[in-house]
Amino acid sequence: MKQHIFLTRRPETLPTWNAAFPNARLMPYPTSDSALAKSGEAIIWLHIAGDKPDPALLVQESALAAPGCAVVVLSNVPSDEEGLAVLEAGAVGYTNSLAVPEVLRQVAAVVENGGLWVGPSLMQRLIAGMATRSGQINNGQLGKLSAREREVALAVAGGASNKEIARRLQISERTVKAHLTAAFERLGVRDRLQLSLLINGLPSPAAEFQKTVH
Amino acid sequence: MKQHIFLTRRPETLPTWNAAFPNARLMPYPTSDSALAKSGEAIIWLHIAGDKPDPALLVQESALAAPGCAVVVLSNVPSDEEGLAVLEAGAVGYTNSLAVPEVLRQVAAVVENGGLWVGPSLMQRLIAGMATRSGQINNGQLGKLSAREREVALAVAGGASNKEIARRLQISERTVKAHLTAAFERLGVRDRLQLSLLINGLPSPAAEFQKTVH
DNA sequence: GGCCTACCTGCCCTTTGGTTCAATGGCAGT
DNA sequence: ACTGCCATTGAACCAAAGGGCAGGTAGGCC
Fold it and tell me: B36 versus A98: which is more confidently predicted?
């Protein structure tokens, strides 16, 4: 059972958090990085109220201050856009700050197992948006990769950086590079950009360019 | 605690299911609709082995036979495409049929709370695919760039390195970088990979649309 | 037991990519 | 003549990507 740290601007709010995790630590925000850094393995619950500071930035700062910790965002006014932003920034969970304790524990269990938690609403949108063009992904190529390599390769094909991938998969950046190097080798490409083109099934590399210079 | 009903063609398989839910009911598949109908509130675990019958259809049949019940799909050979298909068809969960009891209970808990469960791999793809598109629905795209910037951007979108572009356009590598920096700025992307995705029309449905009308 | 593969990571290095702070010259419009 | 945009480039710099070497775990197979 990991430790739970709630970062918030209003420490007095939301007794539901304590109901969910009696042994949770409540820290005012902003917090000194050092305080977070030595907290070890923990789940950071980042409470965002307004959009004054960019939520995505807050996530990245928190992740930076507490390396190895999963960051879950609690929003007062959840929206799909905000959820998308924080998840892209490396958060592994996004939910309503008023969620009942049961749901909070649920989220905690999921992220502890290396999962990602998003609400039903956002999830539906993700699925709907993806379904329309899922056929374009090149799977013959992906079959050549191991499970982990495939995960990394797909993230790269989506435009993610090594750091982001490491954060999402809870592995070191070095390991991401290792998987990528293996993927490049197996698929016969030289870098992440060509990997992206291959996976996304796009016209042969440099074809567009050739047209412009012929 | 809801009831758990496992639908499978091979009732003898997978003791892990019973380990996860000792009080589960195992029903051979296909099942008479009536038997399912009177089961009341339950979670239907639909075990699919091959792709002989369309998994998506099976989900819809099950959902029809047992109204109000959540349907979770267990696949012997999980793939992102299959997952996408069954989730679209109305399933609220998709995971490996060999998943350990802990994960199964995890899934059950999530769907009982009205959540949707997808595996990390598929989730990764959903996020990666969706994330980059948040921001630019306005695709003036290449039109926003100067002639030279467009040339360089297209070359990058095709997978070329700065050095290659410099050589083929007969300019210095430094100039290539200058054009690229300008292009990133104008298109609102952060690096060459995202530029590639944007230009190639992957990030946004709107981009696809623009391409088809012009 | 060895052997293989997948997976994970450290340290350290080179290469590439990207930016900052400049400068120069052409070319069009007012 | 002045202003603005564009193309071009250098030097220097920092960050990201990629890979070599070395090591660790864990599981499957013979």
Answer: A98
